[in-house]
Amino acid sequence: MKIVVCIKQVPDTEAEIKWDIPKGTLKRDAMEATITNPFDEFAIEEALLTRENYDGDIIAISMGPEKANDVLRNALALTVNEVHRLTDDAFAGSDTYATAYVLASAIKKIGDVDVVFCGKQSTDGNTGVVGAMLASILGFSQLTYVSKIRSIDAGAKKIVVERAIEGGVEVVEAKLPAVVSVIKGINEPRLPNLMGIRKASKIAIPEWNAGDLGVDTGKVGSAGASTKVVEIAVPPPRGAGEILKGELEDIANTLTDKLIDLKVIK
Amino acid sequence: MANDVWVYIEHKEGAVTPMSFELLGIGKTLAADLGSNVCAFVIGDGIDGIAKEAIAYGASKVFAVEGATYKTFLPDAYSKAASFLLDKYKPEVALFRATSQGTDIAAATAGQLGFGLCTDSIGIKVEGGQVKLTRAAFGGNYTVTVVNEKAKPQITTVRPKSFAMPEKNDANQGEVVKEAFTVADADLHSKVLEFVKAATTVNLVEADIIVSGGRGVGKPEGFELLKQLADVLGGAVGASRAAVDSGWIPYEHQVGQTGKTVKPKIYIACGISGAIQHLAGMRTSDCIVAINKDPDAPIFKAATFGIVGDYTQVVPKLIEKFKSKLNK
Fold it and tell me: What is the rounded distance in angstroms from the CA atom of residue A40 to the CA atom of residue A45?
């Protein structure tokens, strides 16, 4: 089985965000503390489990500047078989569609892929749509919010998954190839061991640029993006809250009155 | 027609709730600013009842694709039908709810049409004839305003409960336009084998009231107390990552950066310190109540009302007061 996992380098949640204000994009290379997108850790683990259960090779891809090598090295340390960084000056400023289009081009180049794993969303952009767009561009089955993989049959080109959606779990059978975006809790991501880390540190990360991928540069980057950020603002702080003081009896009386006054409680 | 505002009406095998129609409210405001009409579009098997309701909620027209293929939501079939309608009529904007179904179909449709999309908008306005969409980024520490100049329609998903519900008037009149569009069974990628309803329905995204617990709850049994308060208020139970990772409550209850983003009218945070990852998921709630032993907990900075105290004492007292005041 040929398994692709798409991963992203994101700023550490506590890190200071550095914006390129005129472009409305992030200065990813200028930010020190970066991590593998937390949701992608579940995607990598699911790829590893799939390889353990069904055999095959895992190819991890990441689109981004040189810093993205860190997350690909981490994937190598976790024993994925092959990695590629998708990078080109033309890619900078790509929106959701352009990102999905570049990833789709890499998946086509890899060829004969059975399953693509990605995390439900990134913790920086938070769009949560690249997986679904990827499926739509590639014409693969679109399986989102996946909380469990029940079975994969590469021979019969069939996959059965559970999707955690509003109000319950939907069991879906789909054709392969498929893009599977996974949620937290589908597994317990393992940590790389020391030998894996040491081995990965010595491997040169191969790069694919727009030309290698056959990407139409008019459709990517700031030039190709249809969505553009025109304003970045810090939301106004919530009004200073009121700390209720006094005896518990009185506080509880005041609070319940105030909440009932909102006319929300039926 | 060319600058109309279209609203996708989601349903589950034909079943709708009033929330299915919520975006017709903001849709109508936008259409007024654009000098156009708000229209609904729906894909399904037998949609006449839904179309009638959409008109009652303010749609001037309803566009529909019908057929047995569309009985159950399938992202590929639905997005192909949606792409067909949107490409044919080219409205200015297409609004989808940021639910699992809304996000699935919006993303796949944008992918097929070849446009980017803005997701989880919390603000939408028309400025100089241009539609501007505002969304939260980096856990709500920033808001970014996005335009989608090249796309027609501009597709966006909208965070549920961000805008007021439209008024319903059963006397409203409107036209229903049915378009024929079929997807061959052989071209379908997936089928739903079954839907297993959750034992306790956790629909945090739709809940008006959420009672949430964090590390300070201290034990799984603590959530039973929070559930009692939620039950009295007709609300749902949420949790912080710390509580979920401790195994006190399942992941589907998690609110925050790696959980759900919610916008209830009342959010009661018990024993939650207020880490930015948690605030990311709930800071746009209308009213936030914080109950925490630590007077310096960051949650108090985000709270509308704060009580410094032990939730095991405060919550039972609140339950008692609510029960007597609400005659429950």
Answer: 9
Q: Angle at the Cα of B78 (from B76 to B82), degrees rounded to 5? A: 115
Of A128, A169, A243, the CB nearest to B300: A243
> Angle at the Cα of B118 (from B1 to A222), degrees rounded to 5?
105
Nearest to B109 by CA among B82, B146, B147, B90: B82
Q: Is there a contact between A51 and A57 (Cβ–Cβ < 8 Å)?
A: yes
Domain A2-224 has CATH 3.40.50.2000: no
Q: Do A153 and A1 meet the contact criterion of CB atoms below 8 Å apart?
A: no
How far is it, in rounded angstroms, from Cα B53 to Cα B135? Answer: 29
Residues B242-281: pLDDT tens digits?
A: 999 999 998 889 999 888 889 999 999 999 999 988 998 9
Tokens 């007061």 appear where? B321
Structure tokens at A237: 């702080």
What 8-state DSSP symbol labels residue B254? B
Of B52, B104, B49, nearest to B79 by C-alpha is: B104
The 8-class DSSP code of residue B265 comes to S
Q: Mark yes or no for CB contact A228/B198 under 8 Å.
A: no
Residue B270 to residue B213: CA distance in whole angstroms: 5
- Domains of chain B in start order, with CATH, are 5-187 (3.40.50.620), 209-325 (3.40.50.1220)
Per-residue model confidence as pLDDT tens digits over B83-120: 999 999 999 999 999 999 999 999 999 999 998 899 99
Cβ-based contacts of B152 with chain A (< 8 Å): none
Rounded to whole angstroms, how far apart are CA atoms B35 and B19? 25
Record: contact A265-B198, CB cut-off 8 A: no
